[in-house]
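S.,

Sequence below, as promised.
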Amino acid sequence: MKDGFRQSMAWLHTWSGLLVGWILFAVFLTGTAAYLRPEISHWMRPELAAATPGPHNAEVAIAAMQRLAPRAPSWFITLPEARENSIRVFWRDPAAGGRGFRSATLHPDSGEPVAARDTQGGEFFFRFHFELHYLSVFWGRWIIIVCTAFMLTAIISGIITHRRIFADFFTFRSGKGQRSWLDGHAVTAVLALPYHLMITYSGLVIFMAMAMPWGIERAYPNQRQGFNAELSGSPPPRPRANVPAPLAPVAPMLEEAARRWQGGTPGRITVSNPGDAQATVQLLRSGSQRISTSAQSLTFDGVSGAVIAQSGEAGPVAQLHGVLYGLHLARFAGPALRALFLLAGIAGTVMVATGCIHWAVKQRQQAAKAGRVGFGTHLVEHLNIAAIAGMPLAMAGFFWANRLLPPDLPQRAAWEIHFFFGVWGLCLLHPLLRRGRRAWVDQLAAGAAAFALLPVLNFIVTDAHLVASANAGDGVRVGFDLGLLLCGAALAAIAVKVARHVPLAARRPARAARAAEATP
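The prediction came back faster than expected:
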């Protein structure tokens, strides 16, 4: 604090943002892409035809599960919605490998399994942005918790540091070296400042039970499952009676749920002990119909169809948690509001990128005056290229792998992810061979080409290309292909800008020479 409070906050802002800046960039970019999780998953499964969801889907799903897994101890059904037009089902199977589950994707009208290629789709970006994939779930989430805390610190200290933060929002000086990067950082920060605060703080709230578990452990000693059941409003599980009994029709249950939820519809169905006298059917309300994610569920006796449990009204703390969680996920958002979330997420991504680049440019200018560039500056410049230019290229590589890998390849979804990290790893090595601006141009141009050529590749290898999707009225795939072209155009424009950029230090002698020539 020896240099004053504001100067200390400036130091805190710089280092709390820089030390985790590359992880934050990846998290912001993949988290922004996760707003389009259903659309990405739909595009990455070209075998799935567009369909309109309806109330009959639940009956179709139950009938399909009675054929697929009549002896399974439980079924988990995700119903189609406006943005997801297939039925996804999971069921327990002790003979299955891994965690003991099997899964299938069903046609929403016929209930027949759809032979779609194995892919995580948009789910990969969603889970990457809070688990980092290759790390264990525990350590991946803890790293994100720490980085999110650093991000919140950087935002608050940045607000304190910049006295003219709102005035600077209207100031952008192009071609001024580090001043331009600082202006870009300030503009994107202030443009979506409420969003940045919300998304960062809510990210910490989501993991509060992991980061601060002591209250739960005090109230529920060694009973975390009991806490989760009470939070979700689920009744205690029933033991099997081993007495065969038919499952009650699900249509009256849907009608009762709609009556109690003022027209709301379920998004998931969990059936326990199907075909047994102790069967239960739990309907969980769709998360796209309200902001809060606090559980709303109805549990029915699977044989009589009578209501046996209903989740109660959440308390103030649980409601606040649910609202913050819902704001973070934005599943409630319609097309216009979702577009604003996307723009705000892009602004956050650019804010992190410009902050990292500004530090490197500033250090490079100071090093030029001293006559020596230190290892730290070289390292930050290298990581900036690999993270900021390399991440979009890796995401494009993920989409290319989806179209190029054989549809019947074993562990195909894992190979798509390996391809993503392989491309990103090459982007980390590439600046060792091509330094500075050349590396930036190479990776940005490669990303532009990869995104722009994806619709062409899609036209060659699938029947769900832009023209066919337009003729079939599949607006999701049409919009996604056009979005890929837009991403390619944006990266191409940035690559051209970087290639034509003349450093400020090189421009000053030229200006001085022109001024001397103009002097009589």
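Residues 512-520 have pLDDT under 50 and may be disordered.

Coffee later?
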